[in-house]
Amino acid sequence: MAAAVLLVYALAVARSAFWPLQEVSPTRFQSAIDAFLEEDKLNPPPRQAILFIGSSIFRQWESLKEQMAPLPVFNRAFGGSLTGEILFYMDKIVLPYEPAIIVYYCGSNDINAGEKAEAISGRFREFVARVHARLPAARVFFVSINRAPQKQDRWDVVDKANRQVRTYCLTDQRLGFIDVNPALFDRDGTPRLELYQEDKLHLTPQAYVEFAAIIRPIIAKAWEK
What we know:
By secondary structure, the protein is α/β, with parallel strands linked by helices. It has a single domain, classed as Rossmann fold (3-Layer(aba) Sandwich). 48% of the residues lie in helices and 10% in strands. The protein has helices at residues 2-18, 30-42, 56-59, 64-68, 83-93, 108-112, 117-134, 155-169, 205-224, and strands spanning 50-54, 73-75, 101-105, 139-143, 175-178. It has a five-stranded parallel sheet with strand order 2-1-3-4-5. Helix 8 (155-169) links the parallel strand 4 (139-143) and strand 5 (175-178). Helix 5 (83-93) runs parallel beside helix 7 and helix 7 (117-134) runs parallel beside helix 8. The longest helix has 20 residues, at 205-224. The radius of gyration is 18 Å and the shape is globular. The N and C termini lie far apart (46 Å).
């Protein structure tokens, strides 16, 4: 018994050293999660399909199914979620669907909250580890955190988190990094403000057209395999 307790403690220490723990409210997005679970009862999404998960950048992608057709995609992004909240709810709105492919966008809100790149990339690695423990063949694609004008003073953190995740994705053929930032800038490096809402963070419908042009071919190729 003592050895088991020590092992659990050692794992907890190793985990907290790998990325800083993040405070997660079990009620902040409960209504959204409950709505997903109710929808699952009435209209269950297909197993072995393509799950989009993450924060409001994906949640507001209203034309996702049409722009990804005929790929069997469904969306479970919620609110202004943090990477820790994706981990908190993944046993309810990720793993039960047994997705063949997961497309992940999260980390933008962490940066706004002052998180470091290491914490963001570390929680993505935990997400992947938990997915592959249950679904070893699943493909996981990380969509780059947007270099939105709203967080221009923290673009260094955005870039560092993206670099760390990109490097990590190169270690496993089941992983992929999809960079959508080139679509958000003009050739001279100026942000394309017409792709943003007034808050200079969230996106317009045209931005999602640009995203689909980048993401869909990659996901379609993975789906064919």
